[in-house]
Amino acid sequence: MRPYETLFFTEPNISEEALDGIITKVEGAIGRYGGQVERVHRWGKRPLAYRVEKQTEGYYVLIEFKGVGNDLRELERFYLINQNILRFLTTSRVQ
Asked: Per-residue pLDDT for 94 more than 90?
């Protein structure tokens, strides 16, 4: 398994319950193919460099995990169909 990190941000005024649900679903998508979540960092509200869907702030979450290529496809599919997630990026980590 390779180390990855995925960063996404949601609308700034998302409820805590909705955010917990999104994080749980991301962890489930990673675990479905044998991946392992190592850490979840909630960065909180931060200003955006430019407007995204009329928003100037976003609630950022960074998840570090180990996984395989299937994890990435499942994650991307989840991010694209979830309307609360404004942008996302998944990259390979250097150990």
From this structure: no
